[in-house]
Design goal:
This protein has a seven-stranded mixed beta sheet with strand order 4-10-9-8-7-5-6, with helices on both faces. By secondary structure, the chain is of the alpha/beta class. The protein is built from 15 helices and 15 strands.
Length: 443
């Protein structure tokens, strides 16, 4: 850190941002500042490389967000840049599903080969929200039921299809409720200390009867909802319940998939048999690419190829994104990054627990997660927001999670140097120690 925050050049850019950005985002930062008593103006990114980000004032940060998990290989990975450059030299765009590029076909083939379905088909999109929307449409066509059972704390994006099933914060849905699917209900998402059988029993007992759901949508573990891991056997049992009730199990692996949770697919690792899988974030290596995967039999619900195209998009499967996605998948496999994520994440959580949980004055209640999706659970919203800002001032980028923002979320690149994580543990303990001392000195 060469200039303390808030720094002059960054502040000038923040003022330009505030003059043009939708005020809803500026207001959110103001609320967080009020809750924590600390400034929450953003830093402005200038450039990035690997696990580092530089701001407009020349400060260098360790990015423990990996761009919300999208830069799972790190920023500007050489294989991704090479694929992007080669494809850009050949062509930037094609005619979507009407006249697709060869690289789109190659990506579809690769995704289907890596899917948990023996005979798979895929729908490409640009965002996780796109993938969820396509999965919901598929379920409605296949079952004839408009109803969806989703989970409290679940985050699936904010486009209209996914907004209706977003359990992260009811406030997101409230202003648009009359335009959303009215046949959506929510169940409690169980934590690791809950009993899986009891949680499943409660879901079965409260299963909507007036409009039985055609789909059950769940994250294998909550990401933005607070890094919550369900109890063993829950996802497997949920799939069995879906099959008994005639509903399809849609698993949102946008955050957890492709090695983030220490497995190729977090849900399959936990014993689930999903009917539809949604991928995104890491898939494009930093470019917007997503996919919805299902069996060929299920995807026939869309009708015969000669019929009307019910779901299409100008940029879905665009050549640039398809090329970087192929490169990303190759690196993930060749470097066995799922296994590395599992090992490194386990070590990181052990080190954080050792450093933070033995001192009550630090205000950390729990360290939890799977793979390199890790959450530091604080005793209050203020403590978590203060910690996030204190870490930023020390050169570490983290993201708040949970509907009450009491969790500091870590989703570093799966390629991150372990030494950077070791330094982060020490920086976190120092930051919490200073916050505790400051609060103890207050009258």
């Amino acid at each position: 850190m060469v200039r303390a925050l808030p720094a002059a050049e960054g502040q000038r850019w923040v003022e330009r941002l505030a003059a043009t950005e939708c005020p809803a985002l500026t207001a959110r930062r103001a609320r967080r500042a009020e809750q924590s008593g600390a400034d929450h103006d953003p830093i402005l990114w200038s450039h990035s490389l690997g696990s580092n980000v530089w701001d407009m004032d020349g400060n260098r940060y360790v990015d423990l967000s990996a761009g919300f998990g999208a830069a799972a290989l790190g920023h500007r990975h050489p294989a991704v840049l090479e694929a992007l450059s080669q494809q850009a030299a050949r062509g930037l765009h094609a005619l979507g599903d009407l006249q697709p590029s060869d690289v789109k076909v190659e990506l579809l083939e690769r995704l289907c080969a890596l899917s948990p379905f023996e005979d798979a088909r895929a729908i490409l999109g640009l965002s996780g929200s796109d993938a969820v929307g396509a999965a919901l449409k598929t379920a409605a066509l296949a079952t004839g039921r408009p109803g969806v059972l989703a989970f409290e704390g679940g985050y699936h994006g904010l486009a209209y299809g996914s907004l209706a099933v977003c359990g992260y914060n009811p406030g997101f849905r409230r202003p648009f409720a009359e335009q959303c699917n009215p046949h959506v209900s929510f169940a409690a998402f169980p934590g690791p200390g809950d009993d899986a059988a009891e949680a499943l029993s409660q879901i079965a007992a409260s299963w909507p009867s007036s409009s039985p759901p055609g789909a059950v949508l769940i994250e294998p573990m909550l990401g933005r909802g607070g890094v919550v891991v369900p109890p063993p056997g829950f996802l497997q049992g949920l799939g069995e319940l879906c099959r008994k009730r005639g509903a399809l199990l849609i698993v949102d692996e946008v955050m957890t998939g492709l090695g983030r949770s220490g497995a190729w697919l977090c849900s399959v690792e936990q014993g689930a048999r999903p009917d539809l899988v949604c991928l995104g974030k890491a898939l494009g290596g930093g470019l917007p690419v997503s996919a919805t995967l299902g069996s060929a039999q299920l995807m026939r619900a869309w009708g015969e190829p000669g019929g009307e195209a019910l779901h299409t998009s100008t940029f879905a499967g665009n050549p640039l994104g398809a090329a970087t996605a192929l490169a990303t998948l190759q690196v993930l496999e060749q470097q066995r990054l799922s296994e590395r994520s599992a090992q490194l994440g386990q070590h990181l959580m052990a080190r954080l627990s050792e450093a933070l949980l033995g001192a009550p004055e630090l205000g950390v209640r729990e360290v939890r997660g799977r793979g390199l999706l890790v959450g530091i659970v604080c005793d209050s919203t203020a403590r978590a927001l203060q910690l996030g800002r204190a870490l930023l001032q020390r050169g570490y980028i983290t993201v708040p999670a949970g509907s009450d923002a009491r969790v500091v979320s870590l989703t570093p690149a799966l390629t991150i140097d372990g030494a950077l994580l070791e330094a982060f543990v020490e920086a976190t303990r120092e930051a919490l120690g200073e916050l505790a001392a400051r609060q103890g000195a207050s009258p």
